[in-house]
Write a structure and sequence with these properties.
heterotrimer; A alpha+beta (159); B alpha+beta (127); C alpha/beta (607); A: 159 residues; 2 domains; B: alpha+beta; Glutaredoxin; 5-stranded mixed beta sheet; globular
């Protein structure tokens, strides 16, 4: 059950203003890890905006997700420096390893895989983040070991 | 803190002017850990923890530990700057938790620059 | 002009905080007074390593080292040593004989070639302590601007400095400020100042680093700008992906408020101004001014047509002055040290027209295939070669330099023939790239330029807001064509098609994201046409990047049978006995490249 009281508190903290919709949705996302339909509707009612307007913001910005995400969110950095250091191959490797494509979540809800456009740690390229942890200068062969840090009983799918 | 006026600000600048330089009688050394996003991603927090642990173990109280932003050389992070009273500052690069502890024992306490992990001495030129 | 003598005044932290700037100024004054200006030059240097004895200076070529100097020593020093040639023994110091066991920073090209102006406090101050910033002359420019200058004088100083916007376009900041001020006065409304910290270019992190290491320099710049323009309200629009920068900025704002440097009655004057931080939510297009303002208002970040500029009708239709982080961080120094000091660095003559040159310094993030990656600040006009080969230390593993990409997705790739080109706004634009916000990505012979062009177009296709058709559809079609080429399915007409679509986008797109989007394709076509031809005609990727056009092989002579690649291979394509050269089965190979990463002897080849 989504705790809509929390939504109301967040909206109230931002003065129930449409001007602050982005900040409101960011906080909701932090609270619920994604933006379920009822949260979006509740925000819309509370700021007196059409649901479509709230939804348009939630779908326009990359930072929002309408789908539930995994416990550990993996982001492969796709900045230029990471790209020339082989980020696309790294993304493929993580994708193969977890058996999911970019934008998807493993069925056990442990990992979500996505890309990000430059985290600004270009000196460590190629970079992958898991939650707030940054893994730099990563090689394909290091991926299973990296994943094992997060899920103790993690077994590489292809091995 | 009272709100400053233009004159207060000038006075404060004059009073604090020497504060950034190590002066005899305050501390024997200062260690600055460079903590920008890149430094933290490369493990600067672990370096800080290892250093603080070592200082506590050694029971030293007259060494200042401070943080600062990125030192610029991302490929050699994590980095730290060690200033011992009366000597030129030395920048250390590619540090590990064991590395910073060795730097603390040998350089800060013992006065010998740890040449294997030292990058260079001195400060950068500011325009 | 040749000088007979140089006075090297230390400008390291220690000496600066013991007054080496004031000392330098006094010496300069004394030199001028004794009419020695043509013979003796004063140079401010990095730390000379004798911080405890500061302020220190060296007189060259005599190699005489002075320390612990006071302003009152200056007349004697200049008269005795510089005029009469008699070193002043009582002020001299003999450094200890034992040489330092490590080189000094000034002997390392990475540091020696840089000129730190915007980054003057990096690594020296604690960004979370306003006292550190004040100790390094922080907020002195604000005091000067509020105490001794009228808004018009501030704007005039910025105009004379030739400061051009560091965010991409290079628009002269002084001109923008003046227009915004005029618009506000004309309409009788209050203008707004905004700091663009939505640093979206991939491979660029200058603004993040400036905020992280010296947040007060940005705040001080904004307060001065607000004073000049007449604003009472300001915003920093910061990227969602920069949590540490956001945290430090919020702390700095709180401290500035507590010290009376923001809020009502700043520094005891009648001037009120405050800054709010607004977070983006991950949209590259929000770096564009009109999209940023839409996002500030809590709307979808779609740009609008700009026949009316944001300096006249911006945030909530108020005159809005937008500059990026690095531009704002330059402002306090220009006010403090004057436009002439700023124009002494850089290229061109900006005295009549700021468009005539590029003054000051530029911060770059030097990344990619280069030995010393990092954040650097260099005077405008330095060559690409100096940046990449001296500061950057060249290309790793001795590989060949191929190109350097500047300006982010709106910029271009420059080949080796342009290495000796000076880096400034106009030279980069003339060469088909642009300054942009300062990302500089170095590429070697293992980088495929068609793939790079495809990468940027793919990036922009995802980031296009979709409002105007030329951008939305033009990018999608360009991506299709480029993908086809990288898969070896390109046709002879594809290049002409890319050029045609690029032309339409340049003419017809609503905002700069779209109109500059063809730049990566156009610049790679201009300089690396042969790579496109190789993909289209010969179905090969010379750099060994495009998956469909390459295969992997094991060099039987180099392989020592260590088995590392066999373990790394997820499809069982590599077989072989330990200590005997291995074999790769092409039918099973998915070309993931894991074997290349695993091999320590470079025995796996991409061809």
């Amino acid at each position: 059950m989504t705790d809509l009281i929390k939504v109301e508190q967040i909206v109230d903290r931002h003065g129930r203003s449409r001007d602050n919709l982005i900040a409101i949705l960011l906080e909701c996302q932090e609270e619920f890890l994604h933006l379920p339909r009822e949260v979006i509707e509740s925000v819309a009612v509370r700021v007196k905006a059409p649901v479509a307007q709230v939804l348009s913001i939630a779908t326009f910005y990359r930072g929002f997700s309408l789908k539930p995400v995994g416990r550990h969110r993996i982001h492969v950095c796709m900045g230029t420096a990471c790209h020339v250091q082989g980020a696309p191959r790294l993304l493929d490797a993580v994708s193969r390893e977890l058996g999911i494509q970019r934008g998807e979540t493993t069925p056990d809800m442990e990992f979500s895989l996505d890309t990000v456009n430059c985290l600004g740690c270009c000196g460590l390229a190629p970079v992958v983040t898991v939650g707030t942890d940054v893994h730099g200068k990563l090689k394909q062969t290091g991926i299973p070991r990296m994943l094992r840090k997060y899920v103790k009983d993690y077994k590489a799918k292809t091995h | 803190m009272p709100r400053l006026t233009i004159d207060d600000l000038k006075k404060m600048r004059d009073q604090t002017a020497g504060a950034l330089a190590l002066r005899a009688g305050t501390a024997r050394a200062r260690v600055t850990i460079h903590m920008g996003t890149c430094g933290i991603a490369a493990g600067a927090r672990e370096i800080m923890a290892a250093l603080l642990g070592e200082i506590e173990r050694q029971g030293v109280t007259d060494v200042l530990v401070t943080t600062s932003g990125c030192a610029g050389l991302c490929s050699r992070e994590p980095m730290a700057t060690v200033e011992v009273l009366g000597q030129a500052p030395v920048k250390y690069a590619n540090l590990t938790p064991e590395g910073i502890q060795e730097v603390f024992r040998r350089h800060v306490l013992g006065g010998d620059v740890v040449t294997v992990s030292a990058l260079a001495s001195g400060c950068e030129t500011t325009g | 002009m040749a000088y007979r003598s140089h006075v090297l005044v230390c400008a390291g932290t220690g000496c600066v905080s013991c007054g080496s700037y004031e000392l330098g100024a006094a010496i300069e004054g004394e030199i001028a007074k004794r009419d020695l200006a043509g013979e003796v030059q004063l140079v401010r240097t990095g730390c000379q390593g004798f911080c405890a004895e500061g302020p220190v200076l060296i007189v060259q070529p005599d190699e005489v080292f002075y320390c612990g100097l006071k302003k009152s020593d200056v007349p004697t020093l200049v008269e005795e040593h510089l005029l009469k040639g008699r070193p002043v023994t009582r002020l001299m110091y003999t450094p200890p004989a034992a040489p330092a066991p490590v080189p000094t920073l000034s002997q390392i090209p990475f540091f020696a070639k840089q000129k730190l102006v915007v980054l003057r406090n990096r690594g020296l101050i604690d960004p979370e302590r306003i006292e550190d910033y004040i100790a390094r002359d922080g907020y002195a420019a604000l005091a000067k601007a509020l105490g001794d200058m009228t808004p018009e004088q501030i704007i005039q100083e910025i105009k004379l400095s030739g400061l051009r916007g560091r965010g991409g376009g290079g628009f002269p900041a002084g001109v923008k400020w003046a227009t915004c001020r005029q618009a506000a006065i004309h309409r009788g409304v209050e203008p707004i100042v905004v700091c663009n910290a939505d640093e979206g270019d991939p491979g660029a992190f200058m603004d993040r680093s400036i905020i992280e290491s010296d947040p007060h320099s940005v705040i001080e710049g904004m307060v001065i700008g607000a004073r000049a323009i007449g604003a009472q309200q300001g915003f920093v629009y910061i990227r969602h992906e920069y949590p540490i920068a956001r945290e430090r900025l919020a702390k700095a704002l709180d401290q500035a408020r507590a010290f009376g440097l923001l809020g009502r009655g700043i520094l005891g004057t009648k001037f009120d101004f405050d800054i709010s931080v607004v977070q983006g939510a991950g949209a590259f297009v929000c770096g564009e001014s009109t999209a940023l303002m839409a996002s500030l208002e809590g709307r979808v970040g779609e740009p609008r047509a700009k026949y009316i500029h944001t300096v006249e009708y911006g945030y909530k239709n108020l005159p809005t002055n937008l500059n990026n982080v690095e531009t704002w961080a330059n402002v306090p120094l220009i006010i403090n040290r004057g436009a002439a000091w700023f124009t002494a660095m850089g290229t061109g003559d900006v005295s009549d027209n700021p468009w005539n040159g590029s003054s000051g310094t530029k911060v770059f993030s030097l990344v990619g295939k280069v030995n010393n990656t990092g954040l650097i600040e260099v005077p405008m006009g330095i060559t690409l070669r100096e940046i990449i080969f001296e500061i950057g230390g060249g290309i790793p593993r001795g590989r060949a330099f191929k190109a350097v990409q500047t300006g982010g997705p709106s910029g271009g790739c420059l080949p080796a023939a342009h290495l000796d080109m000076p880096v400034d706004f106009d030279s980069l634009t003339a060469a088909g790239s642009m300054m942009g916000s300062g990302g500089m990505i170095v590429m070697d012979d293992q980088t495929c330029m068609v793939d790079v062009a495809r990468y940027f177009i793919a990036f922009l296709t995802e980031e296009s807001c979709g409002k105007c058709i030329p951008c939305r559809e033009g990018l999608r079609c360009s991506l299709d064509v480029l993908t086809r080429i990288t898969e070896g399915k390109g046709d002879e007409g594809d290049i002409a098609l890319l050029e045609e679509m690029g032309g339409v986008m340049q003419d017809a797109c609503l905002c700069a994201l779209g109109s500059s989007a063809p730049n990566p394709v156009i610049s790679t076509l201009r300089y690396f046409r042969d790579e496109y031809d190789a993909h289209i005609r010969d179905h090969t990727c010379p750099a060994g990047v495009c998956k469909a056009l390459i295969h992997y092989e094991i060099d039987q002579a180099k392989c020592d049978g260590c088995h590392a690649c066999v373990t790394a291979c997820s499809t069982g394509a590599i077989t072989g006995q330990v200590k005997y050269p291995h074999l790769l089965n092409q039918d099973l190979c998915i070309k993931c490249g894991a074997c290349v990463d695993a091999c320590k002897r470079e025995a796996v080849l991409r061809a």
